[in-house]
Amino acid sequence: MSIKRASGFLLAAITAGFAYAADVPQPRFSFKYGEQVVTGSDSMQVDAHLKVTVESVAYPQFNATEWVLWFENPSNEKSTVLSEIHDGDVLVLLPPKPPKFRGDIAMPGERAVVTMNGCFSSGDYAMSDTVTAREFAAITRYFHPMRGKNNVIEMSNGCARPSDRQAPFFEVTQDGQGAIIAIGWTGGWRARFADSAEGVRVETGLALARFYLEPGEKLRTSRVLLMNYAKGEDGANKFRRLLRKHFSHVASRPNVREGLLAYELWGGLTSEEMIHRVNTLKAKGLTYEDLWIDAGWYGNSTKCDDAYTGDWGRWTGDWVPNPRIHPKGLTDVRDAAKDAGMGIMLWFEPERVVSSSNFAKEHPDLLLGPLLYYGNDKGRAYVRDLLVDFAERLNFSCYRQDFNFDPGTVMKNHDTENREGVTQIRHVTGLYQMWDELLARCPKLLIDNCASGGRRIDIETMRRAIPFFRSDYQCGFNVNGDVLQTHNAGLSRLVPYNGCTVKLSDTYSLRSAYSASHGVAYWNTIFQKEEKVDWAASKKCCDEYRRIRKYFPCDFYNHGSSVLDPSAWAIWQYNDPEKGEGVVLAFRRAESPSSRAAIPLKGLPKGATVEVENLDTGAKSIVNGELEITLPERHTSTVFLYRTM
Questions:
Q1: Among 216, 478, 534, 585, which is most buried by a count of CB atoms within 10 Å?
Q2: Beta strands 36-40 and 50-59, pairing class
Q3: Rounded distance, CA 314 to CA 596, Å?
């Protein structure tokens, strides 16, 4: 712990890779307090007006540590202004860089920062599969030798949803070793990576944070997670295991389900039609677990056949079942779902309140523009009690949370002088509090964390919820299964619990949407007709998914394409290293010239003999570490189960 005037690099280092890869990192942070630079790794009393508390947890098994800072003013006077707050300020030590001429391009052993794309503009979804397919892609960024001492890579999400545009996961790597860093903040963040002789200095924090503390005030900033990995280690799967064990909804509540298996109905369908479709699913032996009722079920819309028609959007904020289409308030749908073995999964968007809603007119004191502000105790309690009431009355298995606008400008406009970022801090911490209180009242409940798709994915939300609807590309009725595959390959590289939905009922499309959570919507709206459903494929895939779903949170290996290439194969392996078993999914895309592929089964003991079962043919075979796959027809897929003997 120290207080220093600004000068040069922070000397204390958190080691990663190289000679110290087995070390457990220590917290390290810095900020300016007036004109002073404060650096440290432990809690400290800076002066009479500022106390800094560092909450940290070490995970020696994973060479990892998480920490979060709390800033508190225990005095009766305002504090000095805090600025340039780096919740993480660490030096990742790396081997010496290979000699390189200024005109050289990247070479083996080069230092790099690997970032993850977030979700893109929703306008791209209908216009460009090529652009959309790059959501969640891993992007390798190299330091340029011509920049000299200013060799810096800077990143931010540019908004107040953490995985909008850019996702808050980063890997600093060189020659197979390095560190993975994640930011836990469900708002605007920033990250800076500066190359140096010793390694890469990493600074992370909130995108906007410059404030003094009122007397008695206490605020937190972003959580930091840092995991080291050594040369020869599988850093990505080490990080997946760390998230699964300590940063997932299952880690927080071990007795809940690992994922959703949901059947979607548009909320604008009448209760009578919903019950008919639920009964049809039951009669055909389709065993989904969650009856997902999406938007359009509330307010007083006059016509609401699907998400693209009607006036359902103008009632967002009025959370009362529409009496025109749900005269019994959905209780009859609840009963039919329960009889079919399903709980209710109901869509809400409580933070966005449109001005035409009755709620906006009756409760303007709870709103900041269109935002129901969670920094207001009364507003937060209203949402919590509303959801608890619905959950208990309608037998919720999942609360589907959406958030369809970027509140950054609204929040910033409500900050006052020398209090920049405080409005967002209070709303984000209020979100965590509301979710925690909801889950305490409804301990078996799952939360689907949706924000125009997967725009709120970070380690804080992952501890409480599942990013089930990872991209609004899934809203389309004829989406390209190959795009769903690229999303899965990108996000699943680091994130074990995520989900996908598809509105088509062919085997290729359904399998393309397999993940740790799985949703279908092939008979979802009025215009989708029962006779168009491939019931045989739907039944096969529902049963198949239930059989293999346990492997999706395990180790992930991508053996095929991670980009939108119609001439390629996509091949995924999910491996349970403790049991020596897993599943392989293979997709031969529409323009692939090859009918055969062969992959090494990874994560198994060297020389292991493996029994493989083809789930399409039922055929079993014995292999020695390599799996040969044959798909004679284009645009087809297959699934294999395997176990070591």
A1: 585
A2: unpaired
A3: 52
Element (H, E) at 131: helix 129-132
pLDDT digits (tens, 9 = 90+) for 254-288: 999 999 999 999 999 999 999 999 999 999 999 99
| Rounded distance between C-alpha atoms, residue 235 and residue 176, angstroms | 9
Other Cβ atoms less than 10 A from the Cβ of 573: the count is 25
The alpha-carbon radius of gyration of the chain (Å, integer) is 25
Contact of 599 with 572, CB cutoff 8 Å: no
Half-sphere exposure (Cβ direction) of 50: Cα atoms closer than 13 Å: 20
DSSP letter at 569? E
State whether the Cα torsion 588-593-594-599 is positive or negative: negative
Residue count (the chain): 645
Which residues are CB-contacts of 223 (< 8 A; sequence separation ≥ 6)? 66, 67, 68, 87, 183, 184, 185, 459, 460
Q: Is the dihedral of CA 379, 384, 387, 392 positive or negative?
A: negative
Instruction: Tell whether the torsion through CA atoms of 40, 43, 45 and 50 is positive or negative.
Output: positive
DSSP string, 285-329: T---SEEEE-SSSBTT-S--SSTTSSSGGGGTT--SB-TTT-TTT
**CA pair distance 396, 343, nearest whole angstrom:** 6
Q: Indicate the burial class of 490 (C-beta count within 10 angstroms; 0-12, 13-18, 19 or more).
A: buried
pLDDT band with cut points at 50, 70 and 90 for residue 22:
low
On whether the CB atoms of residues 401 and 346 are closer than 8 A, the answer is: no
Q: What are phi and psi of 44, to 5 degrees?
A: -155, 150
Query: Please, are residues 78 and 38 in contact by the beta-carbon 8 Å criterion?
Result: no
- The alpha helices in 504-587, defined as continuous H runs, are 507-512, 535-548
For 585, phi then psi, to 5°, come to: -115, 130
Residue with structure tokens 């064990």?
245
Q: Give the CA angle between residues 56, 58, 60 to the nearest 5°.
A: 175
CA 108/CA 99 separation, integer angstroms: 11
- Considering the entire predicted model, what is its pTM? 0.95
Those residues with Cβ within 8 angstroms of residue 315's Cβ, 6 or more apart along the chain or in another chain: 298, 299, 300, 301, 354, 356, 357
**Integer Cα distance of 15 and 24 in angstroms:** 8
Report the SS3 class of residue 514: coil
* Sheet strands (E) in 60-165: 64-72, 82-86, 88-93, 112-117, 138-142, 152-156
Query: What does the DSSP 8-state code read for residue 453?
Result: B
How many other C-beta atoms can be found within 10 angstroms of the C-beta atom of residue 289? 20
For 53, how many CA atoms within 13 A lie in the half-sphere containing its CB?
9
pLDDT digits (tens, 9 = 90+) for 214-267: 999 999 999 999 999 999 999 999 999 999 999 999 999 999 999 999 999 999
Beta bridge partners of 83: 32
Evaluate the CA torsion angle 291, 295, 299, 300 in order and state its sign: negative
Strands of 427-516, DSSP E: 446-449, 499-502
Candidates 92, 111, 174, 188; CA nearest to 412 is 188
* Sheet strand arrangement including 64-72: 44-47, 50-59, 64-72, 218-229, 177-184, 166-174, 112-117, 138-142
- 351/430 Cα distance (integer angstroms): 11
1 band by pLDDT with thresholds 50, 70 and 90: very low
